[in-house]
Amino acid sequence: MTAVAIWRALGGSDARRRSLWGCFLGFSIALWTKTEVVRIGLNNSSITDASVLLKHYSAGAAILAIMYYIVAVYGHGPADGEMARAVRVSRVIQRAATKTALASFALMTIMFFTIVDRSIPSDHFVSDHAGQWGATAYMTVFYIYLGSASAICLYQWAGAFRREERSLLRVGLGMMASAMVLGVTYSFGRMVAMWIWLAVHPSTEVAHKVETSTEAMQLLLFVLFALGVSVPASEKGLRRARAWLSLARLYPMWRELMAAFPAIPMEPPRSRYHELTRREMDAELRLDRWIHDVADAIEKLRHHVPDGLMAAAKTKTARSSVAQAYWIKAALAAKASGVPAGSVAAFEQPAATDQAGEVAWLRQVARAYKKSNVAQVESLLAVAGATA
């Protein structure tokens, strides 16, 4: 949770990213208060059981951040149609979330310092205070806030899960909805147990078992939520990684084509390191631009080669991508030797149904281009020239 919070702090500043960052930050602080060193250190400080209050503050803030995340995702849209209820719920959240959270925190703080018995530091707050009305009242406020917010999240994400068609996003929404099922069960289950303990005081062993089992449920909640939020992000990350790898593969051919026609790119090509590490433009957008740059350069090269060059290249290999790579290498050599622009030469480009297919084809061409040599180029130009 801490690592994800740091990662998301560096990821952007729009409303969704800020909300998710606040959520992970709050949950990470809450989890740190559960560790033995932090828990015992705070509980034995000048404020007895301080870890409990800090944990509930941070978890409550994380839940509030989730509410704002829901508003950011579902709060803007038409007030009719399939999304109508999701939008209406989000707008209600937007009006009530902050006030409800602040009221809950204020009431919990008053209860914590007045009616909760903190005469002895506790290592397990719920089971150690089993059967005590002050702690039960305090935890009831927290659990109602936590459980209600979890139920709202469950409603929104379960609805989005049913509507979503993209597989990875659907998996992520399913995990997030499952996490909120655990959140509702955890919150109201613990609250009911504490009220029962007021009437029937449990043994220490039974109370500890209930607390331990529900604690495990909460930890599973954190895991499912973190994975659910990360799955859709991983899809985008995979796309960016594939785009970056494609840029790396296309760079040698793209650079030589742009050097031949410097007016095509928006700015002169730089070193491989600079081109692959620049951050002012998304990798997918740059890849799309490079594809158009290559196509424009090939179109210009068609004016500097004999019409039979493609046919000559196809006699050298049975693979169309390799033939195209030979043609590009030979065409660049012809232009570099000073061949003046003339009529348009024949060129074969397979039709691609989408950008992914076009990128896959260009990567094959770039691989063959990198392996081609001067002797192959010269022989192609000689054959094509003789044919002409």
Biggest beta sheet attributes: none
Strand content: under 5%
Q: What shape does the CA trace take?
A: elongated
What ranges have pLDDT less than 50 throughout 5 or more consecutive residues?
A: none
Tally of helical segments: 15
Helix content: over 70%
Structural class: mainly alpha
Mean pLDDT: 86
Number of strands: 0
Distance between the termini: 68 Å
Q: H/E element string?
A: HHHHHHHHHHHHHHH
- Work out the radius of gyration: 32 Å
Topology:
Elements: H1 2-9, H2 15-32, H3 36-43, H4 50-74, H5 84-114, H6 125-128, H7 133-163, H8 167-199, H9 204-260, H10 272-277, H11 283-301, H12 309-316, H13 320-336, H14 355-371, H15 374-387
Structure description:
It is a single chain. The chain has helices spanning 2-9, 15-32, 36-43, 50-74, 84-114, 125-128, 133-163, 167-199, 204-260, 272-277, 283-301, 309-316, 320-336, 355-371, 374-387. The protein is built from 15 helices and no strands. The protein has 388 residues and is mostly helical.
